[in-house]
């Protein structure tokens, strides 16, 4: 352990001593919340959001379903009205591949919206209800016309679907109740068909289904995609309350009551269920297992901080488990009350007995230790791992929901457009935006009406800021200040080193207009105040670099295979930097260098270049809940001198162009940035940890899919030789459920390959259930 960690600990301790002086009107404690009367602020706030690059100057981003004729009386069929609120304005529906210029925020005032037909959730659509009084969408008894009531990817002829499942970005559902109880009991209708990818979210959703023992209702069906995050959901009733399959996903705070099967997982590479409550069900988790390379089933499933009550079986697998890898399972802190069997095989045979007990740690799968390359197949309890107190609250991982400001009155909201920022993708908004932060941070909720806000100098986002976008408002860095790769410059600086206080960001997309080789897109400095763990956080926001209209980093100038680092295709120095004295609660953060052009040319692949993904040197605590980092040249996640981090499903892909050029080109590793120096594989690292302590990872999906845009290497499972590296100067590094694709060695220690994928091949992916030093 290097001494710098010790020094850091002292720095943070002294910070906490000098607690922030509160009392002034604007403060690091954030805006006062009073029980505001009247409607939800999002309903009453003047709608000044627009889509500047949409040729239709009358295009509306925010639409209330009532303006399209929805009645909301529980009797009138509102399906056509809701569908036209979604589709009006030439949006991205059937026949449209993807588009960022047609955002839609579909608002539902309080009411009961009866629907007789499916509601098709177009590409780039948020469906948002009143957070104070969530509206219901009620399926009529004669509902017909499709398998799902809310459908994010409808089927068309021949099993095809509207959108490519792995590119099904930009959807959100918030503050909604979906009522399926009027449907016939035997209807096999799905409440939500949620076949989605990154940049999607669900917050505050309740689904009501029949509780009849003969019910066929399914609350959510997901068959594939590449997600993702969802949370704060309640499902009552149903045959399978949720039936889920996707490459990777994080689900936080899911509650299921009175279902036959609460959660069925049909396939995955790696999922985590964090903070799940199941009550009065037959089976809490039914896991489809026993697959192989041709018939993929569940690869890895983590169940953390679960509470299971009055339910016959906690976990059941669909195959009787041989004494070899057949679906990795991790149970970590599960409280059982009135559970007959904790873990059952296919026939209900007892693998782990139930009762009233707390399971500290139980795993099924291949376990490795240190530099040994021999797996041990385990199906048993483990010694509980050491979890630092800083990451916990009441013995569970700290979790924080996305703030929705339902108690903030409209008078406490400041619109950046009303304050003079243009958001038109042309005007330099640097001064206007900085002025808003300087004046209102810590006393008003700063609302970024939808738009594209260009900035040309570093924006200082002060501690105390609470800011929210409108359907992922774009804050876009461009110009000279970010043009020098040898002089990297922060575009959005969140607090200053040493700051302590509240900081909240949600619904924002941080982007660049290239070339921006010197851009550090977001630098995160704020530490949460003592006694308020997770108060410095970001929710449902992402860093998206290139690939879209207005970025100048797209198929028009950076087509794949034609450039190996052209100056005009240089997109960023670093995506997200979490600095030494910061803490961070990041939920649903995707740091994406675009691999394809979303807006032009049918998703054409492009070659643009970003040096680094997420770099943390924080002394903690840091919670990364459902995050991803993709296609950066040197690394996706780099933890150096970091302490007390909880990583709960991280997902990565390396650049598709590598090894042309070989990593790290077109960038140069720099030691003052703690860059890795070993690039002998010629490829970027997915995850690299060095000189760090107490890093707990529950779910990592790290993938290598290409050799210079060719995919033959997937079949031979060796697109790159090694993908994740841990250095032995680190302490207490715990990795549960590591799944890799296309890497010969899944993990190396000090650069020497340790874990062979071939010993852990399960389906398309290889999975290790647990590795520790
Ligand atoms: C995703 O699911 C759809 C519908 O079942 C299927 O047609 C498609 O082949 C699946 N794609 C992948 C990549 O699994
Ligand atoms: C994979 O599993 C399927 C379904 O159990 C089985 O039909 C198939 O033969 C298996 N394939 C291999 C290569 O083991
Ligand atoms: C579309 O891609 C082609 C190459 O495939 C390129 O020549 C053209 O400029 C692109 N068009 C746009 C509008 O990006
Ligand atoms: C887009 O690409 C897909 C897959 O290659 C192809 O089936 C489709 O016809 C293309 N559409 C257009 C408009 O070029």
TrEMBL record:
MF term (GO), any: polygalacturonase activity
Rhamnogalacturonase A/B/Epimerase-like pectate lyase domain: residues covered: 63-283, 414-473
Residues annotated as signal peptide: 1-21
Native organism taxonomy: Eukaryota, Fungi, Dikarya, Basidiomycota, Agaricomycotina
One Pfam family in the UniProt entry: Pect-lyase_RHGA_epim
Protein name as it appears in the record: Glucan 1,3-beta-glucosidase
Segments forming a coiled coil: none
Keyword field contains Phosphoprotein: no
Gene3D superfamilies: Single-stranded right-handed beta-helix, Pectin lyase-like
Keywords attached to this entry: Signal
Protein's organism: Exidia glandulosa HHB12029
